[in-house]
Amino acid sequence: MNSGKTIKYLLSLAVAALLLWFSLRGVDWTGFREVLLECRWPMVIAAMGTGIIAFALRAFRWKMLLRPIDGGTSFLSTYDAICIGNFANFVFPRIGEFVRCGYITRRHGKATYDKVLGTVVLERSWDVLVMFAGILLFLSMASERFVGFFNEKIMSSLGEKFHGKIWIVALCAAVLLVAALWCVWKFRHRSAICGKIAGLIKGLSQGVSSCFRMDGKWKFFVSTLLIWTMYVLMAYFIALALPGGTARFGLEDALFLMLVGSLGWAVPAPGGIGSFHFLVSLALMSVYSFTQESGMAYAVLSHESQAVTMILCGIAAYVTEVFRKNR
C-alpha cells in the first residue's frame, strides 16, 4: 500500500471513529441493553436471510452482464466474487468492486479486467438510478409525519434564515448546478477533475442506456427491482425486531430507513462503520422521536446483522475458492 492509499485509509478510519463517537456519546448503556434483550431475534435472522437472497440476486444479475464477454462465468463464481468483495470492503472502502473484478478475471481469463469492471459500472449505474427512484417514491407516499418533519426542521428554518426567500435560494442553487455541469463538460479535456466528473457522468448514462439493448433485459430489470425489495425487507424485519415495532413501522417507514441506511453505507468509511450508525440513529430520533438508546439499538442490529452476514458469506466464499484450487 503506497503512501496515498495509506492516507486515504487513515482518513476513512478517522471519519468512522468520529461519527461512531458522535453516535455513542451520551448513550445510556443500561437502557440500550434492555432494548436489545427485548428484541425479537427471529426477525434479525430473517433480515440476515434476506441479505443472502440479495447477494444471490446480485450474482444472477451480474452473470447476465458478463455473458456477452465471458459466457462461461458460472453463477457460483459471481456469487463468490460478490461475497469476497463485500468482505474486502470492511478492510478498505470501495475496494470490493475491484476485488470481485480481479476474482472473475483471474478465475476465467476470457475477459479482460477493464471489460469486467465495465459491467460493474453498468450495474452500479442502475443501482444509483433505482435509489433516486426510491427517494421519489418515498416523497410521493410520505405521510404527514415526514412532511411535517421536513417543513418544521428544514424548510421553516431555511425560510427564517433567508427571510422567506427560500424558493429564490432554490432557484439560484438550480442555476448554479446547471452552470457547474456546463463547466464540467466544457473543460473536460483541459482539467483532470472535470474530466473525471464528465467520465463518471458519461459512464453512468451509458450504463443505464445500454441495458435497454441487452438480451433478456427484463430479467435484468426484475432482478434489480427484487434486489432493492430485499433491502427494504431487511430494514422492515429489523424494525419489527424492536419492542413495539409491529405497531410502529410500515413499509413506508422501511423504505425511509433503507434509503437513510444506503447513504450511511455510501460514506467512505470501512464497512459503513460510524456513518451508518450516525445517520440511522439520527433519523430515528428526529422523525420517530426515538430515545438515543432505541435509535442506536436499531442501528446496531441493522448494521451488525448485515456485517456478520457479509463476513460469514465472504469467509465461506474464500474457503470454497481454496478447496477449488486444491482440487
Structure description:
The chain is an all-alpha fold. The chain has helices at residues 3-24, 29-37, 41-66, 75-88, 95-108, 113-141, 144-161, 166-186, 192-210, 217-241, 245-248, 251-266, 275-287, 292-326. Helix 3 (41-66) packs across helix 4 (75-88), helix 4 (75-88) packs antiparallel against helix 5 (95-108) and helix 12 (251-266) runs antiparallel to helix 13. The radius of gyration is 21 Å and the shape is globular. The mean pLDDT is 79.
Per-chain topology:
Elements: H1 3-24, H2 29-37, H3 41-66, H4 75-88, H5 95-108, H6 113-141, H7 144-161, H8 166-186, H9 192-210, H10 217-241, H11 245-248, H12 251-266, H13 275-287, H14 292-326
Helix pairs in contact: 1-13, 2-14, 3-4, 3-6, 3-10, 3-14, 4-5, 4-14, 5-6, 6-9, 6-12, 10-12, 12-13, 13-14
List keywords for this structure.
single chain, mainly alpha, 327 residues, globular
Percent helix: over 70%
Rg for CA atoms: 21 Å
User: What global shape is seen?
Assistant: globular
Structural class: mainly alpha
Summed up, the helix count is 14
- Ranges where pLDDT stays below 50 over 5 or more residues in a row are none
Largest sheet data: none
Number of E-state strands: 0
Average pLDDT figure:
79
Strand content: under 5%
First CA to last CA: what distance? 32 Å
- The H-and-E topology, N to C, reads as HHHHHHHHHHHHHH
